[in-house]
Specification:
Layout (H helix, E strand, L loop, with lengths): L2 E11 L25 E5 L2 E6 L6 E3 L10 E5 L9 E3 L5 E4 L9 E4 L13 E7 L6 E9 L6 E5 L8 E5 L8 E2 L4 E7 L8 E8 L23 E7 L6 E11 L7 E7 L15 E5 L1 E14 L5 E6 L1
């Protein structure tokens, strides 16, 4: 898992500490709600600039948090639900998500599970049930079968005689699939020649959690160049020239090329998606901090009473 995300932001100004985002109590840093919009938007007093970049900031509970429950992050975080993982079975299987304690999320894989390919000459089915009055939703996070030969079918009901929702094959990620009633059936068939990695998906009772939750297109992709930011303006108190920026972070970017940068710039500098902030404003750069939460700190000396723009990119 590669991660590039940050929370627990604490900006202290001189001797008189002003907490802009509480990183020391269980309030956390981004606790007001979930967000993962494209373009430019605001969250907890920060302006987040994602544009249409491939790698974009998301705010939610998906990647965990050092304090509170939410973080702002870019991550290849993959959801795992202990005790709630289902592979395509050799013979038909009915899964009552409520009875299994898996209504809040279950992993759904091809017959090879999370780490192996499916087999040749398969013909397998599985049905997921939600409580009466609820629907079954399935969100795919990866998909790769032999195009035009190995097919996943989705049916709106308890068996393959139910209405066909869609047929999926190749490398195109299926859309979010949901039942109209409380059951959803999948059938998978493969020929006898070529196999691939299959799929991974998450099954929910009712609509999946909002806020993108770290699933595509908001996961960390090293195959595409991206520059995204979040920032806010800070005014130094009268008589106080120093601003200390502290944060708890996890940073595991690609060693050669991917960085979390911190800038303090004049308010005339407006971060733009796809464009790096001038290096003259940089006060910190992080690349491979580690997989656990690490506290970082940088101090900036400015002019008392002046407003500056604190930028994370």
């Amino acid at each position: 898992m590669r991660t590039l995300y940050i929370l627990g932001l604490l900006l202290s100004l001189g001797w008189a500490q002003t907490i802009l985002v509480d990183g020391t109590s269980n309030a956390g840093s981004f606790e007001s709600g979930n967000a993962c919009n494209t373009g430019t938007f605001t969250a907890d007093g920060w302006t987040i600039v994602n544009g249409t970049q491939t790698n974009r900031w998301a705010v939610n509970t998906g990647a965990g948090a050092h304090h509170g429950s939410r973080a702002i992050y870019i991550s290849t975080y993959n959801y795992t639900f202990p005790g709630c993982a289902y592979n395509m079975p050799p013979s038909h299987q009915d899964i009552n998500l409520q009875s299994a304690g898996c209504c809040g999320g279950a992993n759904f894989y091809d017959s090879g599970g999370s780490g192996s390919s499916y087999g040749n000459n398969e013909n397998r089915t599985i049905t997921f049930y939600a409580p009466a009055g609820q629907q079954v939703y399935v969100v795919f996070t990866s998909f790769h079968t032999e195009a035009n030969y190995d097919y996943l079918y989705a049916y709106d009901g308890p068996n393959t005689l139910s209405p066909l929702i869609g047929t999926y094959h190749g490398t195109t990620l299926p859309p979010t699939i949901n039942s109209t009633g409380n059951s959803l059936t999948f059938r998978f068939t493969s020929d006898g020649l070529i196999t691939y990695s299959g799929w991974s998906a998450i099954v929910f009772c009712g609509p999946p959690p909002t806020g993108c939750m770290g699933i595509p297109p908001h996961d960390y992709n090293t195959g595409s160049s991206s520059v995204v930011h979040f920032y806010r303006d800070v005014t130094l108190p009268a008589g106080e020239p120093y601003m200390t920026i502290s944060a708890y972070v996890k940073v595991q970017g690609e060693g050669c090329c991917d960085y979390l940068d911190i800038f303090v710039a004049p308010t005339s500098v407006t971060p733009m998606a796809g464009t790096e902030v001038a290096a003259t404003h940089r006060i910190g750069r992080y690349n491979m901090v580690g997989s656990g939460w690490t506290q970082i700190s940088r101090t900036f000396c400015g002019t008392p009473g002046q407003t500056y723009r604190v930028i994370f990119s």
